[in-house]
Input
Amino acid sequence: HKRHAMAHRRGRVGVGRVRQTGPRTSAGYSKKAEELRTVGIASAVETVQKLEVKLTEFAKKHKKEIQNDPAFRKRFLEMCAPIGVDPLSSEKGFWGNVLGIGDFYYELSVKAAEVCMASRSRNGGIISVSEVRDVLMKRGTRFHISSSSSKKDKCKYSEEDIIVAIGKLSKLGSGFRCVKVGKSTMIVSVPTELDSDHMEVMEIAQNCDGTLSSRPRGTVDMDEVRKTTGWTEERAKRALHLLLSKGMAWLDVHQGNELYWFPSVW
Output
């Protein structure tokens, strides 16, 4: 009994001690956590700085390839993105002096935007990236890299370059943006909000190549949309009518049959 009472008293003393030291222990944990967080941030900053140095060395070493090879340039930009480095800035600075590709993307975005706006009356403000590039190529549009050693050096550009250039425009709140329709990337140059239904209708038109269907390429009709998607007539009408009202689709009525044409995917 005495042993039990003594153990009980010792237990009460132990609890009291825990209660008394609890706040101090909690404060200690908070302080340690803050120290670890500070060390973690400092370590992360140091790592990023080291990566930036490596990236700079890489850019200097492969300057020609970055300037003249669209595929190489795409990979380089993908390397830059995770650490927040933006070599596309056209402001005078290190990246501008080393690579000069910021001005190139600015000029490309302007020329691509001109093609988009010139075709709005035909396609309602949606055009494939491949068509934009084809138009620029047919016009003989070429671009200079500002830091090129020779003025005769002209920059080759790809569809990926155009997508990057439009991405820079979209950040300015210009209304330009790229959307995926099936296997194609399209540029939308109007503020119209397109949802997945509109994209799906355009993809159906895109997939019609005239081999498996009697319909011409780039066309759909109500029955085809409902059969492919399983939608109700009301849902299909809503998607088609918005595209029609915005000029992204044309309606051809022949002998009572309605056929919707999409100039952006011809």
